[in-house]
Amino acid sequence: MRRRERFVVASIILSLGLFIVQLVDLEYRVWAVVALGFVSYLLSAWALFEDLQPFEWFTVLPFPVFYAISVGFFYFLLPTNFLSRLLVLTIFGVGMYALFLTSNIFSVAKGKAIQLIHAAHAIGLLFTLFTSLLLTNTVFSLHLPFYLNGLAVAAIHFPLVLMSLWSVKLEQKVSRETLVLSGMLTLILTELVVGLSFYPISVWNQALLTMAVLYIGLGVLQNYLRGILFSNAIREYSLVAGLVGFIFLMLFPLK
Asked: Which of 108, 134, 158 is the last residue of a domain?
């Protein structure tokens, strides 16, 4: 079976798995989503096994896993009508296929310069932000204590940030610099989420603000790793940060 055929088969199986998750009794549905994530990891390994290196089991394969888990939890919040669920299943399957293609580019591009790498970086960033939004929304929706919110977001975002920063240089290992920078950005996001736990704004606004800070942080750090963090880039991200801060202040209730 050719590689792209494996991507299609894996995407269809995972889409069916997402559908089955919703048929499980509510009390077991969380474990069903976890099982979906485990299956997505195994299917990703099967679909991408030709070029996988040992360290890529921790830098490439988790991309589809986090995506599957994030959509699986978000699926809880959808209306029960058939059309909405069919639409989400279709989008999920297409997104999973695109993510397999992106992961494959990252795996193949180690030590090589290929034309599709810039598109892969853009798609990888998009899926990272999308996954962060859905998972952070799920965490805030549970109305946990502030310290559990912080721990959950840290556990979610450290691997997401690590994968995004590693994909910049696609090194043969995860460097100490990448680990340190990932830890720093994760700490910032954790502190932000702990602070947001005390603010009376909607769950979606909390998740969107967290995603916005993740976007700014990843943009700055990725440019730094590429060696192109010039003054104009700093001004652009500072402007975005100022705009995000202004929007947050406008959303904050004054009463």
From this structure: 108
Nearest to 156 by CA among 219, 207, 223: 207
Count how many residues are written for the chain: 255
Is the domain of 192 the same as that of 255? yes
Write out pLDDT tens, residues 51-65. 777 777 888 888 889
CB atoms within 10 A of CB 87: 11
Place of tokens 């193949």: 108
Provide the Cα torsion 65, 132, 106, 97; round to 10°: 60
* N-term to C-term CA, the chain: 62
- Distance (Å, whole) CA 2 – CA 11: 14
Counting the structural domains of the chain, the total is 2
Q: What is the pLDDT of residues 66-95, one digit of tens each?
A: 999 999 888 776 666 777 778 888 889 999
Q: Which of 95, 96, 71 is closest to 19 using CA atoms? A: 71
